[in-house]
Amino acid sequence: MPQQRSPFRVTTPTFTLSVCGMQRPFAALGRSVEKQACDLGAIPGKVCQIHPPAKAGQPGFQSIELPRYDCPMQAEGVWLDEPGSAATMQTRDCPTLLFWNQQTGRLVFTHAGRPAMTAPVDCGGCQYNVVTAAARATIQNGNPRDVHLWIVGSICGHCFVHESDDSEQYIAPFDKFGPTAFTNRSRGALNLPAIITLQAIHYGILPSQIHYDRWFCTKEQLAFASLRRGTTDRYNTVTVIRRQ
Q1: What are the distances in angstroms from CA 48 to CA 27, 37, 51, 67, 157?
Q2: Torsion (CA) 177, 183, 189, 191 in degrees, nearest 10
Q3: What is the dihedral of CA 200, 201, 204, 210, to 10 degrees?
Q4: For 8-242, which CATH class?
Q5: Which residues of the chain, if any, have pLDDT below 70?
Q6: Phi, psi at residue 173, to the nearest 5°?
């Protein structure tokens, strides 16, 4: 298995996306979080720190919001429309998504963990989740063929196993996506990147414009934090900087 370099970066004229492996938590990093973003091109004072909610019912759950720069904000993600603005979050095994509308220039940056990808229990079997919220915020009234999606910092579908006694309640909601949702249903091996890809295609985003390194896995890459490998906190730092 090839080792994923850290930091991993995607750079275009519009944005830079950076994924760094094991680091101290935000509380210990302090101002150096903003410095890291500014080193990549962000404007000082325009760096939004996102703290994704851990479960349903917490503030900001499944929510894509305007960025706040004066203090950390609890939300799944933000959209960035202002040149020089940036957003950063710390993760562990959960995918981080960057949607980019190349026609309108809109960037939507979001955490996409299993809870946020689970549809509300009262939605009658719908497929609403943080992925659909982010896709809608990016496409708006435009053409989904103008949208690119990057899926980064995720555990793979073979390693995201749920085998505890209460696991069925967490994985059953994903049966609606069919066999694509699992690499092994009996072990509860949930394939979040595949589900994200399936939903993006459903929204009209071209498969050729969905970017995911299928060889990367936070559990298998020792430079990155992983709950399934025993890491106790979110130590991977994902940052996006809007350049223009």
Answers
A1: 14, 10, 10, 6, 30
A2: -50
A3: 70
A4: alpha beta
A5: 1-7, 23-31, 124-125
A6: -60, -15
